[in-house]
Hints:
Blueprint: E1 3-6, E2 13-16, H1 22-34, E3 39-42, H2 48-59, E4 63-67, E5 70-74, E6 88-89, H3 94-104, E7 111-115, H4 126-134, E8 138-142, E9 146-152, E10 160-162, H5 168-179, E11 185-188, H6 196-203, E12 208-211, E13 214-217, E14 227-229, H7 234-246, E15 251-258, H8 265-272, E16 276-279, E17 299-305, E18 313-314, H9 326-335, E19 339-342, H10 355-364, E20 369-373, E21 376-380, E22 388-391, H11 396-408, E23 413-416, H12 428-435
Parallel strand pairs: 2-15, 3-14, 6-7, 10-11, 18-19, 22-23
Antiparallel strand pairs: 1-23, 3-5, 4-5, 7-9, 8-9, 11-13, 12-13, 15-17, 16-17, 19-21, 20-21
Helix pairs in contact: 1-2, 1-3, 1-6, 3-5, 4-5, 7-9, 7-11
Amino acid sequence: MSTVHVAPARRLRGELTPPPDKSISHRAALLGAMCDEPVRVTNYLEAADTLSTLGAVRSVGAIAEHRDGHVVLRGTGLRGAQPPEGPIDVGNAGTLMRLLPGWLAGQDGRAFTLDGDASIRRRPVDRIAGPLRAMGAELEATGGRLPPFTVHGTQLHGTDHDLPVASAQVKSCVLLAALLAEGRTSVTEPTASRDHTERMLAAAGVEITRRGTTVTVCPVDELVVEQLAVPADPSSAAFAVAAGILVPGSRLVVRDCGVNWTRTGFLRIVERMGGIVVGDLEPAPDPAAGDPLPGHEPVSDLDVAAGPLVGTTVEPDEVPLAIDELPLVALLGCFAEGETVVRGAQELRVKESDRIAAVVEGLRGLGASIEATEDGFVVQGAGGLRGGRIEARGDHRIAMLGAVAGLASRDGVDVDGMEVAAVSYPRFMDDVATLR
Ligand code: S3P
């Protein structure tokens, strides 16, 4: 494990292009593997998590090659996945662990076991097992809820699902299974979550509609798409955005960032806190005007400038649209005037680490006045952070949180386990260095 000292920055200037989107890369690899004809994925994320997805689709019979800086997939077709000899290794990738079983559950007569690293073995799969069972799948999980996880493929049937918690991973798992089911499937979430799967399926010729937070999908014989383009990841961009806002005198430009409205909740929270981020963000659809599903992902440059912040309350319906950026909301709260509260974010407890505990204990060790609640945290702004030492806990987003805290702190921060940033953002420390 490596410890990196991140010294306070005087100001940050310049521009950066964040790495390709992790969520969209996972989906592009899976969709490519489900197609009969070759699919070219441009700007695929070359990071630990999404390399696990290429490994996983290869292990069930797809070919995935790097060619001219792109990834080309030759799939098995929708119904042609073949079980490997041993378990499918998902590494540290929770999205892969939750999406892939959706496809595999429809491989009639074939069984697949999925397993991963120590962190994956602590993350529940019962949330996908329930809906897949309702569609007719047979599944076995350790202790009923943890990986290793075995999926016995069968002929699925279309079902209407009402999810208790908004989760793009669970919704996407069901939508992939629905492609192979008999009859129509619908998924209703309590509030909207990221919609990359829906957009990609629409682009691949699937009959898919959205009304409010209900998505309905019809089965297909094949998926047809030649090329998928991955934008820069707004969740990775968020670390630079936060650094640019917190380090006095900073001016940054973030290039080609994905600005799908289901991913820009953090930018709306930042704006409410008084942060300056200017970009051409996709507006949320107007329910009165209907809700067409675009088959593409919008992108924009973002201009970020440092400035004073005020505390805010993040309500439960905002949580799924900013889920991976909530640790950064806590950090901004340390520098804001007044109180910052996040509510309804109990999902953070089952991410790559228990992110409520990791954020609260981590930032407190750097001088923050922060308390955990069951479903979030409460931060009292104290004009900044002293600095100190933070442990990444094997969680890429906690490692990068520690580094951004270091840039904005008075004394700097030692981040233990910084190398785990490579799960989603291998060049993170290099990008930070170019902005100093
Ligand atoms: C993801 C959805 C979110 C997010 C995760 C990626 C996805 O999880 O936290 O990093 O790609 O669908 P949930 O669906 O569990 O909220």
